[in-house]
Amino acid sequence: MKGLTQFLSLALVTGVLTMNSCTSKKETTEQKSGIEKASYGQLADGQTADLYTLRNASGMTAKITNYGGILVGLTAPDKDGKFEDVTLGQDSLSAYVKNNPYFGALIGRYGNRIAKGKFTLDGKTYSLVTNNMGNHLHGGTVGFDKVLWTATPIEGDEPALKLTYTAKDGEEGYPGNLSVTVTYTLQKDNALKIDYQATTDKPTVVNLTNHTYFNLTGGAKRDILDHVLTLNADRFIPVDKTLIPTGKLQPVANTPFDFTKPTVIGARINDSTDTQIKYGGGYDHGWVLNGSGDSLKLAATVYEPTSGRVMEVRTTEPAIQFYTGNFLDGSVMGREGFAYKKRYALCLETEHYPDSPNQPSFPTTVLRPGQTYKTTTVYQFSTRKE
Ligand code: GLA
């Protein structure tokens, strides 16, 4: 009976796998694209969250919950065709609620830091929640990573999940009711595309991103120091001790921040002679992407030699935060009771520059009524045999 109930709780919303036509578990193991919905648990306020599994025809899956819009898992094939999870994640909704260092989460209203949680817009100063060394980080204590989004599955051979959330005027200190739509699409070509859109009823600031931690070994077998990274960026954004930008941009040439050519991440990560490496405890900085305009451009390529997996990141955003899991210390339990240690993952958060609301020389993050905020980021997976 329990099995039957569980089965009935799955709503298969694809044209191929509809709830009516689904007669056996076998169908889900076939390489059919679609979306499966299952209950993910209850939150303290009684609301329930769901877990959606998007699958494409080649067998790649993306698991997403509408709690925090969290990407709970993402599989990709290695050079022998073996699918494994390439992200860090936790085992249950309650684990994510209890303590999530932003694994897989959607971040907003402002991804990254705002100095002292203050900014002035149109002559009015706003005070935001401060939650990180006196600064505002990732939208505050209840950012978009901790709210329940409304989910709409979209059928097709490129299954998608549309998430919507309206942040209230004054939420975490920000002005304006902000209506946000984020759509995850699992493409046929083994890419996960994330489209972000937002509108406001008062002038505000917006900087949305996703905070997935990647480890391309599959199943976080070891740290990411042997991953090879290329960043399409000639400049990076130096910070102070509290990781707030100094306001100047620095050429990467002749620094440990030069990833213009494929470079092993671990090669210079402990260069204690470099003040910026010291401040970040490794890499925890924004890089200014080369090229301008709103078109999708290649921002980063990551290659993991043992699995042969390659991830390419394309974005319309002007910058990318490269973070090497410096704050992971084994205290957060990951999947199957596995404790993720320092540098067991890397994040490539596509976004605007940190603290832009206080830096007139940085590209603006102001959104006004009548305007539409629109950005896209694509994480594409392939393999290379060497
Ligand atoms: C971002 C920040 C880091 C850290 C992580 C979460 O990447 O830049 O400093 O806060 O999020 O731990």
UniProtKB/TrEMBL annotation:
It catalyses: alpha-D-glucose = beta-D-glucose. Beta-D-galactose binds at residues 112-113, 211-213, 284. Its main location: cytoplasm. Pathway: Carbohydrate metabolism; hexose metabolism. CDD domains: galactose_mutarotase_like. Keywords: Calcium, Carbohydrate metabolism, Cytoplasm, Isomerase, Phosphoprotein. The active site is at 211 (proton donor), 349 (proton acceptor). One of its GO terms (biological process) is galactose catabolic process via UDP-galactose, Leloir pathway. It comes from Spirosoma validum. Its cofactor is Ca(2+). One of its GO terms (cellular component) is cytoplasm. This is Aldose 1-epimerase. Its EC number is 5.1.3.3. The keyword Cytoplasm applies. Monomer. It is found in: Cytoplasm. Belongs to the aldose epimerase family. PANTHER family: ALDOSE-1-EPIMERASE, GALACTOSE MUTAROTASE.
